[in-house]
Design brief:
Mean pLDDT: 86
CATH architecture: 3-Layer(aba) Sandwich
Number of helices: 4
Distance between the termini: 29 Å
Radius of gyration: 14 Å
Number of strands: 5
Order of helices and strands: EEHEHHHEE
Strand content: 15-25%
CATH class: Alpha Beta
Shape: globular
Strand order of the largest sheet: 2-1-3
Low-confidence stretches: 98-108
Length: 108
């Protein structure tokens, strides 16, 4: 089992859209997205990319669950997170998830 620590990140694309991802090294992952060869297909041609949110989550399993839950949020909930109007725990709780330990694993 890996003890690498993952972070959740949100990128703002040039068209204003938000992209959610997880990575051990967020700066390196953003560089991969911008380079294109190892980046997400969604981000191709949508640069420049701007990191607008980053939060340490924990192991890959928890980070993947949180990433999934954040991707299910509507735009206003994501914007509240980006703008600092709500914490990740609050946003996930308000979306019907039990965000204990930021996992968001138990959604109703």
């Amino acid at each position: 089992m890996s003890d690498r620590e993952y972070s959740l990140y949100l990128l703002r694309c040039a068209d204003g859209s938000l992209y959610t991802g997880i990575a051990v090294d967020v700066k390196k992952r953003i560089a991969e997205h911008e380079e294109g060869s190892r980046g997400a297909k969604y981000l191709r041609g949508k640069g420049p990319l701007r990191l607008v949110f980053e939060q340490h989550i924990g192991n890959r399993s928890i980070a993947s669950r949180v990433e999934y839950r954040v991707k299910q949020l509507d735009r206003s909930q994501k914007e509240a997170l980006v703008d600092g109007q709500a914490t990740l725990r609050e946003v996930l709780s308000n979306s019907g998830c039990d965000a204990d330990q930021a996992s968001g694993a138990a959604c109703r």
